[in-house]
Design goal:
56% helix; globular; 231 residues; alpha/beta; three-stranded antiparallel β-sheet; 9% strand; 7 strands; Rossmann fold
Length: 231
């Protein structure tokens, strides 16, 4: 994270932090990060503009909006030409992603506009960037699309074919999850709660609010942390 100038957030991780009462941790992380926390206009609509119109989500939207108003999270400072390029890249990414897999001659929808806009922003920025995204499909698409194909084939119980020549299209994107940010926060001792179980509680809190992290991964992280403490 420290080698990147930008962290670009999809909607999911910010909503997850909000639902777990961890937006103050996000602000503390921003102070530690020598760069910007960015969101696209599509993500802002999803986490602020639309939720502000729904009583059920209004409080969390207000809390997120406060971060936006104080530039903790912000839109990228890009030129009108880059805005046009962003739209083009968004549509290109959406087209490639949603034609990558097909079953019975039907294409399988993988990514929505918001996720594609987040990836597109990363592709047009000149400085290094990391994308924060909790949704498993997008992460696997970038990290191991063939494993994603196998997973979907198992889930849907039908043979799935792929345009394997497009697998490399997504390798340029660097992905982390909200759980990785939480790990950094724990390492930097940013949580006010000093209970030794806070680390595990945070990981499970994020998992059950939408971050795709398995029990096996959580146990491996806990084991590594325990070994570090012993060392």
């Amino acid at each position: 994270m420290t080698s990147s100038k930008y962290l670009i957030f999809d909607a999911g991780p910010i909503i997850n932090f909000a639902m777990n009462g961890m937006l103050p941790i996000l602000e503390k992380l921003k102070k530690e990060f020598k760069g910007e926390f960015l969101i696209t206009k599509e993500v802002k609509r999803e986490i602020i503009d639309y939720p502000l119109t729904i009583k059920k989500y209004e409080l969390e939207a207000m809390q997120i909006k406060d971060l936006f108003d104080r530039n903790i999270i912000k839109h990228a400072d890009i030129t009108p030409e880059q805005v046009d390029l962003l739209r083009e890249k968004r549509e290109e990414i959406m087209s490639v992603a949603n034609s990558l897999f097909h079953s019975n001659k039907e294409e399988i929808h993988l990514l929505d506009k918001g996720e594609c806009a987040t990836l597109a922003l990363s592709s047009i920025l000149k400085e290094p960037s990391v994308i924060v995204i909790d949704e498993r499909t997008a992460r696997m698409l970038c990290e191991n699309p063939e494993n994603l194909r196998k997973l979907m084939e198992k889930k849907l119980h039908v043979p799935i074919k792929a345009r394997r020549e497009d697998y490399g299209f997504f390798k340029k994107f660097s992905i982390i999850r909200s759980t990785e940010l939480a790990m950094i926060a724990c390492k930097k001792d940013l949580f006010d709660i000093k209970d030794p179980m806070i680390f595990e509680a945070v990981l499970y809190g994020l998992k059950y609010k939408g971050c795709s992290i398995s029990e096996t991964e959580i146990n491996e992280v806990k084991k590594c942390k325990k070994l570090q403490q012993m060392g």
